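dumping this here before i forget
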Amino acid sequence: MSCLMVERCGEILFENPDQNAKCVCMLGDVRLRGQTGVPAERRGSYPFIDFRLLNNTTHSGEIGTKKKVKRLLSFQRYFHASRLLRGIIPQAPLHLLDEDYLGQARHMLSKVGMWDFDIFLFDRLTNGNSLVTLLCHLFNTHGLIHHFKLDMVTLHRFLVMVQEDYHGQNPYHNAVHAADVTQAMHCYLKEPKLASFLTPLDIMLGLLAAAAHDVDHPGVNQPFLIKTNHHLANLYQNMSVLENHHWRSTIGMLRESRLLAHLPKEMTQDIEQQLGSLILATDINRQNEFLTRLKTHLHNKDLRLEDAHDRHFMLQIALKCADICNPCRIWEMSKQWSERVCEEFYRQGDLEQKFELEISPLCNQQKDSIPSIQIGFMTYIVEPLFREWARFTGNSSLSENMLSHLAHNKAQWKSLLSKQHRRKGSTDHGGPGTEKEEQTVAEGDAP
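structure:
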């Protein structure tokens, strides 16, 4: 076989069966061509980070703003990925896992509204398909498939596209994180103070935004893209660069999959705009903006959830909470997420050091410890937001549970930080550094 062409709003070209795809043309905003392809997990508009790809003038390929995305997809991944991940629904029942695993996964879904839901275990039980499996279940549970007359096969294929556009090699910003945020969003949508006012459209928007809010995340932050003159930073004029890309990528997949093609044009346009508003709200640099608005509403007691505008604002707040809820999980899961996100920070710092760039805040493994990063994040970002969320919910049992976990986890990290200082032989050495790191988080510079 000398050439394979797959039509999916574009094409995949191979010179022989043993080579990686050179170019995949799809919806989006970037064009990349490689001589030897890319690692299997790195498909999407931002492949495996290589310094040559960050400098438009030195890379031999063409990188530019286009209406159609040229995505990189390895030959091996296309031909050896499971039929489920490729979005193919077989005629006969599909059994990827044995009945024991499937039974455990089904049992977990029966408790998907519980705050101690273990997304790591669920991802293993579903063979790495936690996001697709969870969303299909939630869409059915909330009656969205029936209400919007969605085609189940089309929905499944769209969700597969979303799941596959997360980079599996990212320690933190991957499909498991998206599934975790989606499960948290489901819990928040059930809060009594909010649930009774939500329409089916609100629920679908909340779940879709949670699932796709970090799609195609490159594993580096906005300042990194800006200082390397990345085309996305230029395209979005250094404003909410990643969030704009997540949103535009999501819209591209919605249109490509034609999931909502049967709905009135005005409705689909409204859905696209509201998805953008929700995803853009996750920009950490806008934290104070949303927190101040929430405090003002709660102080004035003027939230009217019968009004679509106020409901949308609370969906934005709910998504922001879901996105940073890891410190509010039980310690065992919270610690895993903390280690994952810091590992991603450190990888960026190593890359910056390798190419003699200034190391970004919180990305220096030699100076920025996991405990100090987490303490600062909890103190300046998480606690203020979740205290106001608790006020909104009337101190619901879920809110009290989250704040209890948050206090416990912060105490755990403080204990670990003290042990680190004792091992260094000086308890005073880390004090000023820790305060500086916490302030850095407060200023919104975290990746």
